[in-house]
Every structure is written in C-alpha cells, then in structure tokens.
Prior knowledge:
Elements: H1 3-11, H2 18-35, H3 51-54, E1 58-63, H4 79-93, E2 97-100, H5 109-118, H6 122-139, H7 155-169, E3 171-174, E4 179-182, H8 183-192, H9 208-216, E5 221-231, E6 236-238, E7 257-266, H10 272-277, H11 286-296, E8 298-308, E9 312-318, E10 329-332, H12 339-342, H13 353-356, H14 362-374, H15 378-382, E11 391-398, E12 405-410, E13 422-425, H16 431-439, H17 487-500, E14 504-510, E15 515-516, E16 529-531, E17 537-539, H18 577-580, E18 581-584, E19 593-597, H19 611-616, H20 627-634, E20 647-650, H21 658-671, E21 684-686, E22 690-696, E23 702-703, E24 709-711, E25 714-717, E26 720-727, H22 739-746, H23 748-757, E27 765-766, H24 773-784, H25 803-821, H26 825-842, H27 848-858, H28 863-872, H29 889-892, E28 897-903, E29 906-913, H30 919-928, H31 930-936, E30 941-947, E31 951-956
Parallel strand pairs: 1-2, 1-20, 10-12, 20-21, 22-27, 28-31
Antiparallel strand pairs: 3-4, 5-6, 5-7, 7-15, 8-9, 8-14, 10-13, 11-12, 16-17, 16-19, 18-19, 22-23, 22-26, 24-25, 25-26, 28-29, 30-31
Amino acid sequence: MSETNSAAETAAPHRYTAAMAADIEARWQDFWDAEGTYEAPNPTGDLAGNPELAAKPKKFIMDMFPYPSGAGLHVGHPLGYIATDVFARHQRMTGHNVLHTLGFDAFGLPAEQYAVQTGTHPRVSTEANIENMTAQLRRLGLGHDKRRSFATIESEYYKWTQWIFLQIFNSWYDTEADRARPIAELVTQFENGSRPTPDGRDWSALSAAERADVLGEYRLAYASDAPVNWSPGLGTVLANEEVTADGRSERGNFPVFKAKLRQWNMRITAYADRLLNDLDGLDWPEAIKLQQRNWIGRSEGARVDFPVDGAGDITVFTTRQDTLFGATYMVLAPEHELVERIIPAAWPEGTHPVWTGGHASPAEAVTAYRKLAAAKSDVERQAEAKDKTGVFTGAYATNPVSGEKVPVFIADYVLMGYGTGAIMAVPAHDARDFAFARAFELPMRCVVEPSDDRGTDPSTWDDAFASYEAKLVNSANDEISLDGLGVADAKARITEWLKVHGVGEGTVNFRLRDWLFSRQRYWGEPFPIVYDEDGIAHPLPESMLPLELPEVDDYSPRTFDPEDADTQPETPLSRNADWVNVTLDLGDGNGPKKYRRETNTMPNWAGSCWYELRYLDPNNDRQLVDPAIEQYWMGPREGQPTGGVDLYVGGAEHAVLHLLYARFWSKVLHDLGHISSAEPFHKLYNQGMIQAFVYRDSRGIAVPAAEVEERDGKFYYQGEKVSRVLGKMGKSLKNAVTPDEICAEYGADTLRLYEMAMGPLDVSRPWDTRAVVGQYRLLQRLWRNVVDEETGEVTVVDTEPGEETLRALHKAIDGVGQDMAGMRFNTSIAKVTELNNHLTKAGGPLSRSVAESLVLLAAPLAPHIAEELWRRLGHTGSVVHQDFPVADPAYVVDETVTCVVQVKGKVKARLEISPSIADEELEALALADPAVVAALDGAGIRKVIVRAPKLVNIVPA
C-alpha cells in the first residue's frame, strides 16, 4: 500500500483494507469449516429424510486433479478452481444440491525424482506439498466439501485402483454382445466347447500355462512382449501419449527409443468404436472431440494376406484395396515380429546392390537398420524426408491377385503403431512409396488412370498420381477385372474377391493402440499380480488389497546413458527381494505356494481414471461406490444419456491422455455393472491460461520479472537491457506471482475478482499485477455503499428504491444470472460494477432491498465480503445458501429505447420510442420528424430501411 492510501485508511478506520479483508476472510473460512457449509448430502443420508432437500436438482462440479508440486501455486493455477467455485456457488443459490470438492493426484515422477536427488521419501515430500497447497487453496475461499477430499497415494484409495485393475484383468470384450464380460464366462465357453480353443484341443487338454496364454489373448489387461517407447534417461517406458512430437519424453525431455519389452497393457482398442461414437452425446468442445476422433483414427479398408514361402502370411491393412494390382513391393516396420522369420541366410541370387545397403547378409543389414530406426521418433520417421531409407530383407511375398513375387523391405516410414505394421507399396499412386521406389530402383505399375496428360508409364512421372475420382486400369486376372470401375465399385468388388478366396476381407482399422500400463518406477500403485514358478500371472484376492508399497533404500530406477537404446529397465521394487518373493495362499484351493510379485508399478494416470467416483462415496471400504449414490450424482438422465459429471473444468492438454483413459475405465466398469454411467464427464470446459511476461538477458537466461524496470518502453534488469516476451508463468521462468502475495496485499476476494475479470474464461490472458487494484477498488466501493467507513455502522434504510434504481438493479440481476449460468464471469463482474457505480453516483443511503440484492449478486464472486455484509445487514444464516435474486421482467425491459434515424447514411435524428414498436409505426415517426423533413428538403424517397427499434435508414430518390 502507498503512504497516501495508508493515511486515508487511518482517517477512515472502518474502510475495507487488506488488513480488514484478511480478518474477514479468515473468520468466514473458519466458520464455513466449523458449520460444514459446503458439505453436499448424499441420497443415502440426509436426502432420504428430507423431502425438500431431495427435491433439489443435483449438480456435480469437478476440477481436474492438481498435482501437489513442491513449488506450490502461482496465480495461474487457481484460475479454473476459482471459476468452478463461482459457478458452484451460483448453482447452490439457484436451488441445486451441489457436490464440489478437490483431491490430489499424488503418484508420479516429480516426487520420485526429488526423492532420488535428496533421499527424501516421496510420501514425505508429497504430503508436505499437499499440506502447503491445501492451505493456499483454503485462503482463496473455495467452497469444497472437505470430507470428500483425498490423495491417490492413500492406501484406502489405491486399494480400489488395484481392485479396478483386477476387474479389467478378469474381463474380456465380447464383440457379439459389444461389452465387457467376466473372464469366467469365457472360460465356461472353452470348457463346454461352445468356443473352440485356438488349436482345436479340448480345454481340459491344455496345460495351465497354455490356458493362461489363451486367456491372455482376450483379457482387457494383459502382459505382452511388444515394441514400446523406452526412455533410458528416465529408466522407464512411456505411453505413446507421453512422447512429444520430436521423439522425446514429455517429462524430462529425454530421447525415446523403440524397444521390445514385456509390459502390461490395457486393451483400450476393444472400445475404439464406442469411444468414438459416444463422443456425439457429450457436451465437450469440438476441438477436443476432434482430437480424440483423430487419435482413435477410424478408417475402413481391407485386410490382405501376402504369403511368404515357409513363413506364413504378411498381413496388411489398406484403405486402397482397389490398387492391389499395382503393389510391386512390400515394406515392414523395422520392429515387425515377422522380420526374423522371413530373412534368409544369404542374399538371393541377383539381389540389386542398392537393396542391401552394402551389408554382407540380410541379418546384418536388418540389425544395422533397426538400430538406426530405433533412434528416430515416430514423427521423424513419418516426415516427408527427401531421401527414403530402408533395406531389403532378402524375402519375397506373393501378391495374391497377380501372383507376382514382390520383394519385402523394412523401412522407417512404416510404423507398428498403425495398421499391421506392414504395407503393400503401390508406388505409382502413393507419394512416399514413389520416392522409395525411385531410391531403390523398384518397378511401378499404373493402375489408376491419370486425369492429366502424364500418360500411364510411371517411369516418366515426377511424382505419384493419387485420385479417388479416376477409373481403374491394368487391374485384371483370369477371375476378376476392375478395369473401368470407379474407386468405390472397385473396392467393393476386390474386397468380395479377397474374402471368397480366403486371402483377405473388408475390415475397419484404428490408429488407437492399446494403452501401455507399466512403469519401471517406485512411486506408483503396485500391481496386485503375482507369478507362480511357471511364470503364470495370478490376481491377488480382494482380501489382500491394498497391496502397499514396501520401504526401499533406493528410489531410483536404473537409468542409463540417454542415448543408449540397447538397455533394459531395472525397477526399484525388483531390488527388494523380501517383498518380491513371497509365500501366499490365494484362496484358489492350492494352499500356500511360492510366488514372485510384479515389480513394475502403474502409470501416474491410473489414479485419475476413476477419482470422480471416489468423490461420491469417499469412505466406503466395502465397495467401489454405493450404487444409489453413483446413480444420483452421475447416472444417465434427460440430456445426459451416458451420465457423467455435470461440469468438468481443466486444461485442453489432456485430450488424449487422461480423458481417453478415464472414458475407457468408465465403460469397463459400466459393462460389468459396477456403475450406471458409461461416460465419466458429460460436460467439459477448457479454461485458458494465465500468462506472464518473461524477461531474458543477452544470454537468453530468464531474470526475475519483479526486478525489471521499464524506461521509455524498454526493459532493464540491474542496468542491462533485457528482452520481453509473453509466455507461461513458472518458477523456472522467474515470473511466478503467488496467490499468497496478492492475498496479503489486497485480499482473496480481490484476487478472485481479478482472475475472473481478466477476460473470457476459455482464452489465455496476460497477468498484470498493477491492474489488480481495480477490483480492490470495486470491493471498497461495494463496502462503502453498505457500511459507514467512519463509524462501521450499516447505512441502509427501509425505504423503497426509485424506479431508475429498480431498473438498474433488475437489469443487473437478469444479466449477472445469465452470465453466471453461462460461465461468462468477466461480463458478470462488469454488470455488478455497473450497478455498484450507479448506486454510488445516485448518492444517499441504499434501500435495504437493493443492498441485499447487491450483496447476493456479488456473493459467488467475492464470498467473504458478501458473508460479512450479509451478517451486518442482520441475517444469521450464511449467504452461501440464500436464493439468488430474481429479476422482475417489468424492470428489465426499457420503457423507451433510442432509435437512430439516418438520411443518406448520416444521423439526422434520434427518437425515444417503445422497444416493441412496429416497423410501420417507426417508419411513420421517422419520416415525420422535423429534422428528417428538413434533411430531405422535398426530395422523393427511394427506400426506407427499418431495423426496429434501433435504426431507420432513409435513402432519397
């Protein structure tokens, strides 16, 4: 505060100041906690015995889980939390039973990396961070039901995360029923013969290991040896969604390589169609829906089998099966499992020298090329590089429609993450295949007639010709001809032919891959899985949950040279032999046996896949959630056919991570009958970001923003000129402003108002500490309109307000209410400010009814000062549960509006008229106005354009 302000506050002892705000805010926060003001009743408790309360519509409002960072909050973090709090408060005041709470997503890499660096147990640092963030959030006056809060690291919570994993492990997807079913039902089908085993033997003839392998091909959670994203610098594998576009880890920015490791996976691909289709019923931003649709990546085409002598078939997926006659070579992803099986001991006679890469044998060539490909990201491999790279495997496959032998290459532009990891190359009609064929001197065949004058000899072309409009040519064998057909008809005919001949069929492919669910870390949920001496995985019985993390001396996974792809993970848990090797009775009738525990942990996403359900019933130790409670808060209802949270607010960066994973878990739990909601979040709202200026010196190093001086539009730090750009706010950028600082200087209500007033909630906006004072002044004027700054007495009077004030009040009530419901908090604040300014200018004491309405309008935005003023106005109950004011329509509509009358585009008159005036009446009034008559000066009228009630435009003849 400046010395001038301090002097003014001394002269006015009851002025609203930062010190008074701190006192008011602390008192009311204590009151809310003591009274349980924000506790939302459940249908199995208070609602059951309270018909009036039970009749209220419910509203479940959520924020995305915060991670308890050691740095605490900066002012950018609470933006969404304040917004949901304002919305929740308005919903309570409009008659809703509101559930709003907040927990902590507390497993993950940051705490573990801190533990590695300092030796501090991750639980110790995480709990300290939670305590600090809880205090910071409490100071903001957020109306959370604190009874429902939790952290994912609590064993009472992750017991149920482990339980859900076991539900998924013990389930399979029945494509005929289009839902998940218990694995026991699948076993019954194998036992009674209604479903044959893969090799046709009786189920009873299979060994335990063979049965486990068969079931593993169906389970929704399964372990497999598959290409994974391996980050030596982190010592762990990563999901596709955790790898950046340039092939580095999202956390830590380490290189990521492709490696084949045995890992746990979630069969999310079984739900691809439902994940795609159910987006239509969600109230989500279209941009997020589009991201999920693109990530799921549904495409229709055909599966085609290309036989390889002695090695089975190479199966490809193609969306252009009509061009099959033009396939002149094949390409496998370097990681494809068939590569080892098809490569011969030596190069076939006559192998083109360009194809070998200068290597003495196919095995040598493949090994060398695989190493090069593993060091590239998927994005780099897919980039339209000028030079195409690859190597011949030494094997040939047979084109099933032409009978031709086509060479099989490996090349990094083909990925295991799409289709089957193998392509039929049609170089005449695909740009990448064309470039590869040119580089390796491979044949090309035109099978789609060019619409330009290039002719049908691809050897003379500069690039491929790709078209969905042209006719097929050169596409016939003794049994089928596609010549002359359009693409759609040719696709249909060749697909039918492939099916009849048993070499393919029409199919749908998805870009979505199964979710890699293992991490080689310590600080995560242990898998409730043990392995017997034959390596068969067994689920722990529910009675053994939770399986808690053991104490370890070394929290770090074994990390390696970040550039060394030829490494293997080693987890912290694997070094704890007493925990890993156990004797257990699993209750399966086999008595105590020796087992080995799973030493990977679940990814940090696991706990956030279902946390909305725990908010509903946080102390239930008997079941995941009480069905009646889940049905009440999240069940399907009109307008929400798949159920879910009524409002979910968070960043758009989680579109294909958390949001996709949580949807998958919800669908599995729904299929198995544990919950009624098939979707976790019905309405999603993405808040923008609070940005801040970043100042950098000549070295590009960020300098403390608070110490930068501005002189003549330039910026200086310790006398040195620095640059300024708008960017993120954060500790590392030295531009973070903490909410504690702003609360200390102005109070929490001021911070809340400023963050909501900065602009539309869904756009990013720059932070400006100097502008905060504007909202502080608003609160001071609000206070002054109700309380005498000299005496501290309430100044309202019990008289009726004048008509002008009533119109200003009810317009504000109407506008603020609509803006609150639409989450347009910046404009709602503007309307409150406008009303407050009107009352200030009107002078004299406020009518009690006007003062009370003004306080109620401000209550969702600035709850502490509203509570204080409400109490001083003589009320004993909390303002939180008061009814929001209702506008009187008679005062909302203006008695008159101003209509502008133009002649030849220039304003000649302004008429005060009724808002409901008819066009004909308005036109007559405008033409009769003396100023208009004078402007026309006897000229005829060619046209009169009437836009009642605001505008009349007269065009003279």
